[in-house]
Design goal:
The chain has six helices and three strands; from the N terminus they run αβαβαβααα. The protein has a three-stranded parallel β-sheet with strand order 1-2-3. α3 links the parallel β2 and β3. The radius of gyration is 15 Å and the shape is globular. Keywords: Hydrolase, Metal-binding.
């Protein structure tokens, strides 16, 4: 799997955060958003190993990274034991004033509020992700984050 996102600045900041240098943030209360824009498992595991949650949060934006690669990355993180470090989301919105509604449907037809339940979860299940894993990513991990 190759890196298709997470530029050098994000990589440097994640590396700094892991040692709690600088401001001393509690990394268990940090979600690294848009982590799903990369397939670089080594990078994602380094970030997760330092305490942060991986926000796999742009499902439906296949123009940035194809659906199959996003799902494969999450399934592989689960297989490698990182289920407790992953949260899932679609990053869709009710209103966007910079994207004409018809153009949005044409460019990113799966960028909607049903995509995770209708497409992502079945694809994860096909790859061996269990209901317990899904519950952890959608319920337990967000709950722990907000407690």
């Amino acid at each position: 799997m190759r890196d298709r996102g997470a530029g050098p600045h994000a990589r440097r900041r994640a590396g700094d955060a892991g040692g709690r240098r600088g401001i001393g943030a509690d990394l268990t209360k940090v979600v690294i958003g848009h982590s799903g824009d990369t397939t670089d498992l080594d990078y994602l595991m380094r970030v997760a190993d330092k305490g942060s949650l991986l926000g796999m949060d742009r499902f439906g934006l296949d123009v940035l990274l194809p659906f199959e690669q996003r799902v494969d990355t999450v399934a592989e993180l689960v297989r490698r034991g990182y289920t407790d470090r992953v949260v899932l989301a679609h990053d869709a919105s009710c209103f966007i004033d910079w994207f004409d509604a018809e153009a949005k449907v044409q460019a990113v037809p799966k960028w909607n509020f049903r995509h995770i339940s209708e497409d992502v979860l079945p694809a994860l299940r096909e790859r061996g992700v269990t209901e317990a894993d899904i519950d952890m990513m959608l319920v337990a991990n967000p709950r722990r984050y907000f407690e």
